Amino acid sequence: MPFSELHQDLDERASLGLLRQRRMMLSPQSPHINVEGKSYLSFCSNDYLGLANHPKLISALQQGAANFGVGAGAAHLVSGHTKLHHDLEIALAEFIGKPMALLFSTGYMANLGAVQALVGKGDTVFADKLNHASLNDAMQLSRANMQRYRHNDVVHLAQLLEKTISGRKLVITDAVFSMDGDIAKLPDLLRVCEQHDAWLLVDDAHGFGVLGEGGHGSLSHCGITSPRIVCMATLGKAVGVSGAFVAAEKVVIDTLINHARSYVYTTAMPPALASAALVGLELIEQGDEMRAHLHKLIAQLRSGFHELPWKLMPSTTAIQPVLVGDNNQALSLSERLRERGIWVAAIRPPTVPQGTARLRITLSAAHRPSDVTRLIEAFHELAR
Ligand SMILES: *Cc1c(COP(=O)(O)O)cnc(C)c1O
């Protein structure tokens, strides 16, 4: 009976401290959440600017639904591509500083589509070992050869590029690594890509809206621009909505429109989400104060951790993981924080490498300094 195999697998996961379970939220995303009837101070959303429940986004969504209905009703290439999608694509391209942008329904799908449209059999994808799962899945699906380079090791990447003589070359990387919080060496990566005539796909899921002046993202933060860079970001994190986009040269976007299967064979995102995202983008652009506040909170957290037995991983971004190592210890730490009314998720393999289970603390501009103080104090209590 195949059921018994499934049970066996789940039991085994449970015994390793790897079973995954959901908790039911009874409130919108915010630093103060209600989970299954209890209130918590939360440090685990990617809603870095607190826009997911912002009144201006809510009313833009309502207005968008009033004008364009609920569902797009078709794929972009059939009859699902509305003026709201069009306007958002124009705004995103300008925001990123690329000729064109293309909307996808999720970041996961954007990565699948972009990689699969740009490379195939006989080509090679070069990927940082700590890339997001969606980039890993994307390269598998593309059927290109796969080469993984050591995390943020541009010398290793250059060696691998050197050895590859035929086919297209595509380097793919998280800009801000999603489970570590550190930033890719984008200027070095670009230089190596130029030397070896490779494309560079940058996944800015965690930098877009958060890094750079005006929240223009990791590329702007690093001060680089190049036609060979293909930029992807999600609208589900700092923008506070859902969906994603790829921004690039026109010929790249036209290629995606024609070849990206996760673009062609799926229903367009609801148009009302595009109007909410447009307002999110405006708030991001005007949000330098929010970002300055966020960076103060990051500094406050890091200095508060100095006297604690746990170490924060080296990160300057809103992702501030506490390295624990053992799966069950990470779970237990998360559980003990929860008993104190604080919600921080334990991240375990295979999301992170074996032996590097961690608590992934994320900060948001919606947190107050007193929230961070409470988190640090809770850790001090646990250390006693
Ligand atoms: C979240 C995330 C994605 C996926 O984006 P979604 O819009 O949530 O599907 C892709 N890449 C990275 C690095 C991410 O963190």
Short description:
This protein is an alpha/beta fold.
The CATH architecture name of the largest domain reads 3-Layer(aba) Sandwich
Fraction in beta strands: 15-25%
CATH-assigned fold name of the largest domain? Aspartate Aminotransferase, domain 2
What summary fits the major beta sheet?
7 strands, mixed
Structural class, by secondary structure, is alpha/beta
Portion of residues in helices?
Answer: 40-55%
Number of helices: 15
Average pLDDT, all residues:
97
Low-confidence stretches: none
Distance between the termini: 50 Å
Gyration radius, in Å? 21 Å
Strand order of the largest sheet: 3-9-8-7-6-4-5
Q: How many domain regions?
A: 2
- By DSSP, the count of extended strands is 14
Q: Characterize the overall form.
A: globular
Give the CATH H-level superfamily of the largest domain: Type I PLP-dependent aspartate aminotransferase-like (Major domain)
Q: Which CATH top level class of the largest domain fits?
A: Alpha Beta
The H-and-E topology, N to C, reads as HEEHHHEHEHEHEHEHEEHHHHEEHEEEH
- Unique bound compounds: pyridoxal-5'-phosphate
Structural commentary:
This protein folds into two domains: 22-49 and 287-383, Aspartate Aminotransferase, domain 1, CATH 3.90.1150; 55-285, Type I PLP-dependent aspartate aminotransferase-like (Major domain) (Aspartate Aminotransferase, domain 2), CATH 3.40.640.10. It is α/β, with parallel strands linked by helices and 384 residues long. Helix 5 (107-118) packs parallel to helix 6. Helix content is 44%, strand content 17%. It is globular and about 60 Å long. The mean pLDDT is 97. The longest helix is centred in the last third of the chain and has 17 residues, at 288-304. The strands form three sheets. A seven-stranded mixed β-sheet has the order 3-9-8-7-6-4-5, sandwiched between helices. The protein has a four-stranded antiparallel β-sheet with strand order 10-11-14-13. Bound molecules: pyridoxal-5'-phosphate. Pyridoxal-5'-phosphate binds next to helix 5.
